[in-house]
Amino acid sequence: MSTLLVKNADLLVTMDDSGSEIPDGGLYAVDGFITQVGPSAALPAAADAVIDARGMLIMPGMVNTHHHFCQTLTRCMAQDQPLFGWLTTLYPIWANLTPEAVRTATKIALAELLLSGCTTTSDHTYLWPNGARLDDQIEAAHELGARFHAARGSMSLGQSQGGLPPDQVVEDETHILADSRRLIEQYHDPRPGAMLRIVLAPCSPFSVSLDLMRESIALARVYGVHSHTHLAETLDEERYCLERFGRRPVELIEDLGWVGPDVWHAHVVCPSPAEVGRLGAASTGVAHCPCSNMRLASGIAPVGALRRAGARVGLGVDGSASNDGSHMLGEARQAMLLQRVQGDPAAMSAREALWLATRGGAQTLGRDDVGQLAPGMCADLVGYRLDRVGFAGAAVHDPLAALVFCHPPMVDLSLVHGRVRVRDGELVGVDLPALVARHNAIARALARGERA
Question: What whole-number distance in Å separates Cα of residue 2 and Cα of residue 406?
């Protein structure tokens, strides 16, 4: 048995059902699970590991619901393209990904996420060239110590069959389903506190067949794992679905059975009001990706309407070639500002944005053990020093709101399941300069049309 005591935080933000914010707060955990939360004076006096959080705000680690880790290798490319043009520019470059490229890019993305306050993340990689496998990402996530929902993405519908991606990057559907089954049986952990869960994630209606969509969701439900895809991201997608299938994207996905509490969709920028209501009534999840949606000029997702309808909504940084960063706190800030820019300064508060980044993300991924600091929850937490220059004049009024209204900082402290992953602003056990150097070498090779 190992014990952890975090004490003396200037403010401990629980994100629990009561919205408790505790001055001079702390928590006590046993074997990675929280057993007590409250004023520091009310907690046990000793533990195997003791962290003095004096001068810091402590809050739950954030939950990222949508990403494409490998796209860290192609940032700042196709800078002025909408989604379909952006994809067709990058597909041939991604075709040169190798297992090492996938592992290295995954480590970079996870490092960036951990440093930005994320402790649980999903990823949606959907092309696997040159022997790359989801196992490569799983290995990297284990090494970095992040809690990981690994989505087995796929594309099977090449241009010769009416799809968007070139034929060279699609897979055989029989292989996709067999590999999906293998991954679930080999890796999926349904237990509370699981560090690794498997998700089945055909890419989109314009890159897989309807048969694969049906068979993937059926397979996921046999095994009790969650399912994920892109949905209603752009008007181009809407036109494609109407022309090819005679249905709007949400209508199509409903016909295929892709709604419910075991499903979440990325983006959902342009559903109709009636579709919003149906998605909400089914408790379908949505990964809201404001930075990517702005970068690609996709539009503004109706986050408030989706939440009011009953949808589970969390935040996603999306791919690091369409954002082009993996900063969860920055994503929360943009989520708040983007809802307000439509004319209502009260459309989303700072606390609501952070709720989406924590509790909302946990709900979206189907987790009831992360996203808040409360007894029974995983000891996943992050800490920010309040004496930084960017908080001057703000932290004295409302330190929690300062995280969203002021310039988004990196964390000073991060723990995942009670294990320190960031200490004094530095990743623990990671040679970051060497990792960045290798990552940049691979990125240069990809830009030249080479494998690395």
Answer: 37
In a domain, 442, yes or no: no
Question: Is residue 313 within 8 Å of 288, Cβ to Cβ?
Answer: yes
What length does the chain have? 452
pLDDT at 433: 97
- In single-letter form, the type of residue at position 364 comes to T
Residue 411's nearest CA partner among 352, 354, 356, 329 is 329
H or E element at residue 424: none
Pair 289, 396 in one domain = no
- Residue 415 has φ and ψ, to the nearest 5°, of -125, 135
DSSP letter for each residue of 324-370: ----HHHHHHHHHHHHHTTS-TTSS-HHHHHHIIIIIHHHHHT-SSS
Q: Are residues 193 and 274 in the same domain?
A: yes
pLDDT at 221: 98
Same domain, 50 and 160: no
Angle of helix 432-447 versus helix 83-94 axis, rounded to 10:
100
Residue 386 lies in a domain: yes
Between CA 36 and CA 44 the distance in angstroms is 9
What was the pLDDT predicted at 323?
86
Range of the domain at 9: 3-60+370-427
Whose tokens are 């520019």? That residue is 89
Secondary structure of 128-167 in HEC code, one letter for each residue: CCCCCCHHHHHHHHHHHCCEEEEEEEECCCCHHHCCCCCH
pLDDT tens column, 111-156: 999 999 999 999 999 999 999 999 999 999 999 999 999 999 999 9
Q: Which residues of the chain have pLDDT under 70?
A: none
Residue 43 lies in a domain: yes
pLDDT computed for residue 117 by the predictor: 97
Residue 107 · residue 75 · CB < 8 Å:
no
Residues 299 and 407 in one domain: no
Q: Three-class SS of residue 406?
A: coil
Same domain for 313 and 279, yes or no, is yes
Task: Indicate if 132 and 233 belong to the same structural domain.
Answer: yes
CATH assignment of the domain containing 392:
2.30.40.10
Within a domain: residue 444?
no
Predicted local confidence at residue 149, as pLDDT: 98
Query: Rounded distance, CA 43 to CA 39, Å?
Result: 7
The Cα–Cα gap between 229 and 253 comes to 10
**Strand positions, DSSP E, 110-260:** 118-125, 147-154, 196-202, 226-231
The confidence score (pLDDT) of residue 233 equals 92
- Number of domains into which the chain is organized: 2
Write down the pTM of the prediction: 0.96
Do 18 and 143 lie in a common domain?
Answer: no
Same domain, 285 and 382: no
